[in-house]
Amino acid sequence: MSSLSWQRAVIKVGSALIAPDGKGCSSQYLLPIAQFICNSRAQGKEVILVSSGSVAAGRNKIAFKHHPSIAEKQAMAAIGQTHMMANWARLFDFDCAQILLTADDLHNRTRYVNIKNTLRELLRNGALPIVNENDTVAINELKVGDNDNLAAYTALVARADTLIICSDIDGLYNADPRQNPQAKFIPTVHEIDKQIHDLAGGAGTSVGTGGMRTKIQAAEKCAKSGIQTLIVNGRNPDVFKQLGQGKQAGTLFVPSKNRDSARTQWLRHTLRSKGTLVIDDGAEQALMRKGASLLPSGITSVLGAFKAGEAVDIRYKDQIIAKGLTLYSNSELIQIKGLRSDKITELLGYSSGEVIIHRDDMVLL
């Protein structure tokens, strides 16, 4: 059995584990997962939970006939979300923090940065972030299985090194093991190609609608960004004992690139710079030699019009040396450039952070 190492993991738990009978929350399958989270935190590791199940948890609270409408599902989610959070919270003796997201939130730069900063602060303060899709305001048909992809986006925004997706089977097979007893288990996937995608089946349960297809999509997003992904059997408590011992369980999708190169590509090619920050000698030394964040004191000029959360170039003399996501707009930076961080609130009346561009949100060019 292969060894497994990680420091910051996103664990995705589906509705089939949260509400096995589809009529309310249960801790039947959650105790081993909660114990694994507690033990991992005790070892100094960081965990973010992505939990489905709000619709299933509230399903018996809303009257409906044959198939619930979107409005009925959203009402179920609104009630079920509180039950789902309470179900998790009673398993831990530390704070649980609710974060409701949509894919839109992660694609919008300003909200993306806000989410990243919130997750960072929650982890720094020892809370367990519990992320779920904001089903109560979703416009499209609710698909709980989309939380597989939401978990991948969460791993990206949190800069996790590992995504663990809990399924109701042991991992990826070359056929559906529930229908074909001859199906062979695939312990490791080094490349997610068409053949791997073709192995994906449909919905795995009557509660969730993601099946293996969205799990492979999630693994592919993570693999391209240097994040290892595990698909494990969330109903098997031995899985979490193995993971707790640093052993591989389930199917491991090996990342195709290291995280830094993936991050560099994302910042360099995907994000379009909306402006330029010119920095002084001290800031250049701090960024290039010490791996520091960019502070307002090191900025000498602000060029272009941009909003908080957008990408900007960092220029030293006549050369672009870095690129990153700014926490402040151009109009705000014009006011605070050259000042110490503790003067930000005094001048603006508020603060979006002590740094202008955090090191995690910057790539050196």
Please explain how this structure is put together:
This protein is α/β, with parallel strands linked by helices and 365 residues long. It folds into two domains: 8-262, Carbamate kinase, CATH 3.40.1160.10; 271-364, Archaeosine Trna-guanine Transglycosylase, Chain: A, domain 4 (Roll), CATH 2.30.130. 36% of the residues lie in helices and 19% in strands. It has 14 helices and 15 strands. The chain has helices at residues 15-18, 30-42, 54-57, 70-89, 103-107, 109-124, 147-157, 194-198, 211-223, 237-244, 259-270, 281-290, 330-336, 344-348, and strands at 8-13, 46-51, 96-101, 128-133, 162-167, 172-173, 185-186, 188-189, 228-233, 251-253, 276-279, 299-303, 311-316, 319-325, 362-364. The strands form three sheets. It has an eight-stranded mixed beta sheet, sandwiched between helices. A five-stranded mixed beta sheet has the order 12-11-13-14-15. It has a two-stranded antiparallel ribbon with strand order 6-7. Helix 7 (147-157) packs parallel to helix 9 (211-223). It is globular. Residues 141-145 and 202-210 have low confidence and may be disordered.
In short:
The chain is an alpha/beta fold. It folds into two domains: 8-262, Acetylglutamate kinase-like (Carbamate kinase, 3-Layer(aba) Sandwich); 271-364, Archaeosine Trna-guanine Transglycosylase, Chain: A, domain 4 (Roll).
Q: What is the CATH third-level topology name of the largest domain? A: Carbamate kinase
Low-confidence stretches at least 5 residues in length (pLDDT < 50)? 141-145, 202-210
Give the number of helices.
14
Shape: globular
Compressed to H and E, one letter per element, the order equals: EHHEHHEHHEHEEEEHHEHEHEHEEEHHE
Major sheet, described briefly? 8 strands, mixed
Number of strands: 15
Instruction: Report strand order across the widest sheet.
Output: 3-4-2-1-5-9-10-8
CATH superfamily (homologous) name of the largest domain: Acetylglutamate kinase-like
The CATH architecture of the largest domain comes to: 3-Layer(aba) Sandwich
Instruction: State the share of residues found in helices, binned by percent.
Output: 25-40%
Rg calc = 22 Å
Question: Could you report the average pLDDT, rounded to the nearest whole number?
Answer: 86
- Number of spatially distinct domains: 2
N-end to C-end Cα span:
40 Å
Strand content: 15-25%
The level-1 CATH class of the largest domain: Alpha Beta
